[in-house]
């Protein structure tokens, strides 16, 4: 403790602050923005939350590509609402990162300069309208599996943002499944389109959960701090177990000859994932990385005048 003065009580020293932080985590209470936190906890959260926010914003592109070609007004309205929701998710998440001292414009610059990542899944193209349904079913399904436990994350603003995000992702997943159900009740060509989309998106969806546990540098510490509640492999397994019965109801085949129920555990065994492809995609060499970043860059640069005007207006009012 530093020496107290007449008008200022002694500031607790770092060891006392660390002990208080550890006790908060051990009691499963939330850390809030004004609480002291270790620098590695803060920077680790900014890393994960920024990556998550970037994923929501870049994730608008693959489905956004179909907004003008939606097959009916109803499908267009649903898709428009979904893509707008993803923008909202990005905004809640950037706000959560700001409570940790991050600057939103700076995070966007880091994304565009490829100094921060976004989810591997959004580097694959959407070739047919069935891809919109499969993204809802598999990609939002995987996002729900991954994000529901984050509603109990130890950092308050992140956990609270996740509650609304998960409710909306749940609607997204159902709209995707309903779209696919409709196509599966349609023509042979429509059924083939759905199967082709499932064939292309299944493996990338499994990669969304991140590298295997023995190759995941951030997991152990993140779980100790209660930021992540389950390991990458646990959540991936949960997703497979949840999805196989849904595929059976839908009438599609998941493209993995090794997929089989293990009667001993009641869980599904599945084939090896191509981690070389995953590493290539997160290193910027996936099928659509360049296109995604180029569009995000153009959106930032072309709309800089809007940001400038809004900032000047806000400044004038705060004065
Ligand atoms: N893609 O040590 P770990 C959505 C990176 S939102 C790219 O295991 P961690 C909604 C990882 O960052 C989808 N990079 O890392 C939607 C780290 O690199 P770094 C996004 C990945 O953090 C639906 C390195 O690999 N969701 O889909 C990926 O403990 C439809 C080592 O990995 C979230 O962000 C990947 N798949 O676990 C929108 C959820 N996996 O940062 C539109 C929150 C790993 O050290 C349409 N995030 N990396 O340079 C998380 O739960 C975690 O951050 C993980 C990764 C599980 C993603």
Structure description:
The chain has 319 residues and is mainly α. The protein has 13 helices and 2 strands. It has a two-stranded antiparallel sheet with strand order 1-2. The protein is globular. The protein starts with 13 loop residues before the first helix and ends with a helix. The structure holds Phenylacetyl coenzyme A (FAQ).
Question: How are the SSEs ordered, and which strands pair?
Answer:
Layout: H1 14-26, H2 39-58, H3 60-64, H4 73-98, H5 104-112, H6 130-147, H7 156-184, H8 188-207, H9 219-224, H10 232-250, E1 260-262, E2 267-269, H11 275-285, H12 289-302, H13 304-318
The site of Phenylacetyl coenzyme A has 30 residues, from helix 2, helix 6 and helix 9.
What is the share of helical residues?
Answer: 55-70%
- Order of strands, main sheet, comes to 1-2
* Structural category: mainly alpha
**What's the overall geometry?**
globular
End-to-end separation in angstroms reads 40 Å
Q: Would you identify the regions where 5 or more consecutive residues have pLDDT less than 50?
A: none
How would you sum up the major sheet?
A: 2 strands, antiparallel
- Pattern of helices and strands: HHHHHHHHHHEEHHH
Unique bound compounds: Phenylacetyl coenzyme A
In DSSP terms (H or I, runs of 4 or more residues), the helix count works out at 13
């Amino acid at each position: 403790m530093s020496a107290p003065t007449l008008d200022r009580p002694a500031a607790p020293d770092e060891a006392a602050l660390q002990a208080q932080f550890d006790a908060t985590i051990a009691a499963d209470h939330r850390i809030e923005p004004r609480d002291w936190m270790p620098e590695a906890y803060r920077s680790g959260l900014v890393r994960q939350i920024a990556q998550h926010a970037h994923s929501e914003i870049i994730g608008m592109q693959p489905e956004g590509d179909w907004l003008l070609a939606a097959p009916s007004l109803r499908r267009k309205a649903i898709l428009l609402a979904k893509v707008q929701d993803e923008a909202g998710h990005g905004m809640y998440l950037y706000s959560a990162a700001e409570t940790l001292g991050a600057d939103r414009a700076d995070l966007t610059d880091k994304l565009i300069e490829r100094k921060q990542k976004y989810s591997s899944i959004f580097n694959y193209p959407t070739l047919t309208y069935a891809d919109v349904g499969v993204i809802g079913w598999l990609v939002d399904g995987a996002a729900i599996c991954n994000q529901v436990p984050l509603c109990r994350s130890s950092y308050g603003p992140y956990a609270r943002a996740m509650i609304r995000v998960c409710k909306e992702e749940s609607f997204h997943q159902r709209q995707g499944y309903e779209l696919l159900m409709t196509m599966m009740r349609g023509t042979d060509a429509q059924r083939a389109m759905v199967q082709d989309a499932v064939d292309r998106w299944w493996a990338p969806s499994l990669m969304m959960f991140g590298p295997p546990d023995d190759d995941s540098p951030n997991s152990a510490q993140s779980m100790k701090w209660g930021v992540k509640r389950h390991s990458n492999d646990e959540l991936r397994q949960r997703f497979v177990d949840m999805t196989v019965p849904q595929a059976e109801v839908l009438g599609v085949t998941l493209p993995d000859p090794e997929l089989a129920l293990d009667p001993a555990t009641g869980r599904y065994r599945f084939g090896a994932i191509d981690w070389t492809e995953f590493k290539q995609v997160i290193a910027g060499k996936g099928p659509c990385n360049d296109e995604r970043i180029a569009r995000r860059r153009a959106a930032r640069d072309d709309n800089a005048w809007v940001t400038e005007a809004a900032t000047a207006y806000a400044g004038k009012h705060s004065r």
